[in-house]
Amino acid sequence: MSAPLTAGALADLSDPQDALQRLAAMAEGWGLNVRPSDAGGLAMRGEGWAVDILPAPGGLSLAAEAGDEAILRGLKEMAEFMLADLSAEAAERLRWSDGARPGAPAADFREWTYLRRHAVMPGLDRLVFACADAARYAGAPMHVRLLVPPCDGSAAQWPRQKPNGGLAWPAGEATLAARVYTVRRADAASGEIEVDAVVHGDDLLAGWAARARPGWRLGVLGPSGAPPLDGPLMAGADLCALPALARILAASAGREGLAVVAAPAEAAAYLAPPAGIALKILPPDAGAEALADAFLEAAEARPLSPSARWWFAAEAAGVRRVRGRLDALGVARGRRDCVAYWRA
């Protein structure tokens, strides 16, 4: 296993204690796992990453640790965004110990070339891309951030590094649309990568693919976010989150638990859960609250283990419902991932 990537920085803020309180409130509002540290600062923890913030002469000391370059870049972007809410000048003056290459693409940026698409079930299509570096997407990290240009990608402007570790994004007619998707499969031998996307509503990728022609290009940041694999699995998902759940289940041999989904009947074969994980399928038009309630009812009908790993991804209203109930049950934030994939 490779050593984690690390970077440090100093944020020059005039009132470090006030800044710590405001950063803690911001992190809490985002649902991050944040707590006071023994050293008088803040400790934020997530899957594959850690950030420690401490008072220091002249401001706050930031120390970031991540399992891969995509997560480390994301932590730097998060730091820039949070600091900008306190002081735009301090955010711009931030400099990280591992350096930056202003004007260069992000270290985890690649281009993908569109090849073809086909349906995998009602409402879900598979898009196939080519990438010379497909092997980097064949490991455990399963999420990528796709950057969709307002054209075929041949003359697209991609984000570039800033001195403070953030990214400068193109504006105006060159503005990119960006959204996170799950890599369903990557084949290093063929150089092909598969991504499944819903084909209705305002899905960004499906809308782009409807007009795309073979040879069109997308920008990609990542991958990051390995499946949660420790403890019994309590999972729920709607159609948008089905590809991510499929990746989790594929890596969950020998685990026990349950999965509740709102999807077509074909989801049973698509997900192929291991023997120890019970699958319940609701109609695909079940509302967000109905999915949340069915998931919670099924989960609470089982003995609640403190080692259970909770994962729920769906429309925002359902996610809020699940998050509130898990708060009431006392489920630690480090044992759960509740992610809003879209908003009605």
From TrEMBL:
FAD-binding FR-type domain boundaries: 107-230
GO molecular function: oxidoreductase activity
One Pfam family of this chain: FAD_binding_9
Matching InterPro entries: FAD-bd_FR_type, FNR_nucleotide-bd, SIP_FAD-bd, SIP_fam, SIP_rossman_dom
Family designation: Belongs to the SIP oxidoreductase family.
Protein name (Swiss-Prot/TrEMBL): NADPH-dependent ferric siderophore reductase, contains FAD-binding and SIP domains
